[in-house]
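Hi R.,

As promised, here are both runs. First protein below:
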Amino acid sequence: MPFVKVNIQDETEKFQKEDPEFAREYAIIETEYELIKMAVEMRKQLGVTQPEIAQESGLSQQAVSRLEKVGHSPTLRNFLKYLSGMGIEIELKKKALEKDERLAV
């Protein structure tokens, strides 16, 4: 059987349209990825090194490096320590959701 090329982006979009639960979970993963990406960009803009964050946060340098890698899902506690290590805090705000967009908990 020959190998068939699959376009991951097309398949993901297809699953999101077909399965509302998949779409909700995928949106959460995308948000997590973007949040970590923003934090790493802020670290670089501030000129803070991974070892400096490790020292300030109490995380190991390896934990800081791992947190910044794509595909790693840090605990909330470690992510907050990471942010604190560079003097950043999170501010929450309510977002407007359509009735059918509310997350089922």
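And here is the second one, sequence first, then its structure tokens:
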Amino acid sequence: MESVIRFRVKPGAGRNRVLGIDELGIVHVEIKEPPQKGKANRELIRFLARLTGIDREKIRIKSGLTSRDKRIAFEGADRETVLSRIIG
């Protein structure tokens, strides 16, 4: 089972945090690392792993490696469970 969730990421923020989810189901997050040499993407994966309890190896960016708009896959968890852990 794999769940894919859309994210809009703002890199270079003061801290890592989830801002919420919009009416289109896109999760908005801020990441402290800058968008240089994959730093923000790596920090995003670490942050999502901490929030969800899913191993980093089971979270991958399916699309949007160089964009703020990303589709991220979570292996082994359904969408509702992942969203409830991210949003709280």
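A quick note on the second one: The helical segments are 39-52, 79-87. Let me know what you think.

Best,
J.
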